[in-house]
Automatic annotation (TrEMBL), chains A, B:
Name of the protein this chain belongs to: HTH lacI-type domain-containing protein
Domain of life assignment: Bacteria
Entry keyword set: DNA-binding, Transcription, Transcription regulation
CDD domains linked to this entry: HTH_LacI, PBP1_LacI_sugar_binding-like
Organism annotation: Herbinix luporum
All copies of domain HTH lacI-type, residue ranges: 2-46
Length: 331, 331
């Protein structure tokens, strides 16, 4: 086990200076602090606090995801994680991040400097600096909806997108729909890519034709509907599968503008089952992601990583929630 | 919650008869017992014993897998599961099964009659009767290396085969091998199919050509080597990737018969890292499946299913263990 003394010896400086560097003291230079932190990380140093299983300190890092209100995607995930962590008396810090934070400091440095012994990352994409650094981190880290190859310290938790999309296509197919459009989330997201592939696979499996013009990337916001719904309708879509409930709300608005009735003229299916889904008019048929279980599972995975169990992926089942926005195909 | 009285009412028989049927009493007819059990399962009945979290009784069902000695594949999986279960005071029964058992009684009936509140299935294939029945079971069930679609009560635990095979191909590629053969396990196994696909993907990713004649299905026994190794050698393979350490032992024997030296003339890589791998001469380079962690993870997954957390898949990282059987390519 690497000690403060080892770091001091390697750098040829006093133990007290190393200690100051690790503990964020103000009376050493910024350069020296950085050198101490870099060396500590390189040598695989972990502080006593980080190893203390009695009161383990971990963080939930959040980038670009709403979580503060119960009707937002991240809320229940965080609650689920915290509930599971509380039973083990882990100290959980919820930290909203931003691009600046990621540019200013490396992931490992941030973790070490704050004595975090593990992290759960929400809303990050593969383009984020900290995610790019995860292929080499030694800090136990769980990512929602993103996968890092080969690093045994990093795990991925998410919902089974293949099964989720397949449930929706199967539902619409049974209702007689053949021309099914798919309005996806952002390009360059692992989840969007999985859902696109799942949609194509599932259409073929159900004997339907996945038409390229009916399969489009948008963004995970309602507003993206207006760019794609008009052409979906022009091309004769009788149902629109959406990659999130928020996208579905935009699609519902757009479809209404065209004077169409849901589900009489067109069926709409969402993804997530946010609280809003059941309150829409008509109530939204959707694919449920159990966000509380996602949080609990993320904790289990992180707990495993902390104890040397290298889980690469943990996927939860998706569930079809049938409400009023899907009905028999007209044609 | 369905009670014994509900079952009695539905069948129009006495509560005592239902009780006898559920508890395997000898003084009712076999037909009546079957009727009671079938009705109980259909109505979703669970006994008090099954719900008693204080002393939950679960089983590990084993079909066609060696597990009694420490050098066999199933041994550490079972130990890992039992260790994790012991902490929660679960009562774990290890039950070797056979085709007769599966033909004589349905899976659900077997579980209910024995008051098991969950099961971990090892060594089963998708062709087994009990596995075929899993798409409808309500009993929390975890399968090693097999996946059941859509049923929220059933989960799959295994090692990440894609990453495992990719690690091996990457290792051989770095050593300069281009003509890499792959001797797979049995056809009609999900794991074999994943590994075949992973091998093809990984060869392409590394700029190598996956030649059809160098990719063959065998069986998970050493003996299958003699059917394929001669033609691999004739076609100029400089390395043979094997889907298990046992297959690799057969390949080593066969290669030696042809007067070739390992690794000077040909490299061999196994899969599993059974205890035998390090004892072979030369010691076998292989892809490690952490069997103890597989058992522990199976427990975690089953514990989740029992408490309503529907995990569909949990995959552990594979790890490359470099020993003496792999070396630089000759050509």
């Amino acid at each position: 086990m690497v000690t403060i003394k080892d770091i001091a010896n390697k750098l040829g400086i006093a133990v007290s200076t190393v200690s100051k560097g690790l503990n964020n003291a103000s009376d050493i230079s910024e350069e020296m602090r950085q050198l101490v932190l870099d060396t500590a990380i390189e040598m695989g140093y972990t502080s006593k606090k980080m190893k203390d299983s009695g009161n383990r300190k971990v963080c939930i890092l959040i980038e670009n995801m709403d979580y503060e209100n119960i009707d937002q995607f991240g809320y229940e995930i965080i609650v689920g994680f915290k509930l599971a962590a509380a039973r083990r008396k882990w100290d959980v810090h919820v930290v909203p991040t931003n691009l600046n934070m990621q540019t200013e400091e490396k992931y490992d440095t941030y973790m070490l400097r704050n004595n975090f012994s593990g992290a759960f990352l929400l809303g990050f994409t593969l383009h984020d600096d900290w995610v790019k650094q995860l292929n080499k981190t030694n800090f136990p880290t769980v990512l929602l909806d993103n996968y890092i190859e080969r690093n045994p310290h990093v795990g991925y938790v998410g919902t089974d997108n293949y099964e989720g999309i397949d449930l929706a296509v199967n539902h619409l197919c049974k209702l007689g729909h053949k021309k099914i459009a798919f309005l996806n989330g952002s390009k360059n997201s692992m989840v969007s890519e999985q859902r696109r592939q799942a949609f194509v696979n599932s259409m073929i499996k159900h004997g339907l034709v996945p038409e390229e013009e009916l399969i489009q990337y948008g963004y995970y916001v309602p507003d993206c509907a207006k760019d794609h719904v008009p052409s979906f309708l022009k091309k004769g879509a009788t149902a629109i599968m959406c990659a999130s409930d928020l996208i579905a709300t935009g699609v519902m608005t757009e479809v209404s503008k065209h004077g169409l009735k849901i589900p009489d003229d067109i069926s709409i299916v969402g993804f997530d089952d946010l609280p809003i889904a059941s309150q829409l008019s008509p109530a939204l048929t959707t694919i449920r992601q159990d966000r509380s279980d996602l949080g609990k599972s993320a904790f289990l995975l992180l707990d495993g990583l902390v104890h040397g169990v290298s889980t690469s992926k943990l996927l939860l089942r998706a569930k079809l929630i049938t409400r009023e926005s899907s009905g028999s195909a007209k044609y």
